[in-house]
From TrEMBL:
This is FMN-binding negative transcriptional regulator. PANTHER family: PROTEASE SYNTHASE AND SPORULATION PROTEIN PAI 2. Gene3D superfamilies: Electron Transport, Fmn-binding Protein, Chain A. Pfam families: FMN_bind_2 (PF04299). The lineage of its organism: Bacteria, Bacillati, Actinomycetota, Actinomycetes, Kitasatosporales. InterPro entries: Split_barrel_FMN-bd (IPR012349), TR_PAI2-type (IPR007396). SUPFAM superfamilies: FMN-binding split barrel (SSF50475).
Length: 220
């Protein structure tokens, strides 16, 4: 990943939180000499029992051409994209700026291992549980509500795998190269917009530039 030092973050907790909030990743590998991408949701397992940087788990269609690559243990990369937005020069308090894009992302590298039947079922259960937890207080939907024969039929069509994380890169580009005056204008602008993600972008700009503001500065 190209990440200038100003935007690079080696904070593992921050990287993990991005993955957990945006678990629909892009699995990339070399298949038959060409780049290959697959968009699938992942479960992230933290904790020392899963290695110093954790592990990812996922499943995909058995007929996907990347499956043999996973089975042979070749290195793959999974990219996760966090909140992002276009920045117009009108979003600044001062003059002479150029349009840009704010964003965050985490790139995970490792060598996959295919899961057995028990691991496959556990991965599916954990993925469903992670997403159902976002919908609380709605009663969580669970796999046992599906007839067992349908579950078994579905499982014949997929392959599950784990990916111990060998390396992870993180970039969080949220106007760290701008002045407090310009950052404050961006935050105020996003907070005034009626779009769903605007308040979240404003919070991220503020969080990544908190050291530029005094405790009594008004950016909200």
């Amino acid at each position: 990943m190209y990440a200038p030092p100003l935007y690079r973050s080696d904070d593992l907790d921050r990287q993990h939180k991005l993955i957990e909030a945006h678990r629909f990743g892009l699995l990339t590998a070399v298949v038959d000499g060409r780049p290959h991408g697959t968009h699938i949701p992942f479960v992230l397992d933290r904790g020392p029992e899963h290695g110093p940087r954790g592990r990812l788990r996922a499943h995909l269609a058995k007929v996907n051409p990347v499956v043999p690559v996973l089975a042979e243990g070749a290195e793959v990369m999974v990219a996760f994209l966090g909140p992002h937005t276009y920045i117009c020069p009108d979003d600044y308090a001062t003059e002479e700026h150029f349009p840009t894009w704010l964003y965050s992302a985490a790139h995970v590298y490792g060598r996959a291992r295919l899961l057995d039947d028990e691991g496959q079922l556990g991965q599916i259960d954990d993925l469903i549980a992670a997403e159902e937890a976002r919908r609380l207080p709605k009663k969580p939907w669970t796999l046992d509500r599906v007839p067992r024969e349908l579950v078994e039929e579905f499982r014949t069509k997929i392959v599950a795998f784990e990916l111990p994380v060998d390396h992870i890169d993180g970039i969080f580009k949220y106007s760290q190269n701008k002045s407090a005056e310009d950052i404050g204008a961006q935050i105020a602008g996003f907070r005034s917009r009626p779009f769903d993600a605007s308040a979240q972008i404003a919070d991220l700009i503020h969080a990544h530039n908190a050291d530029k503001f005094t405790p009594d500065s008004s950016t909200r």
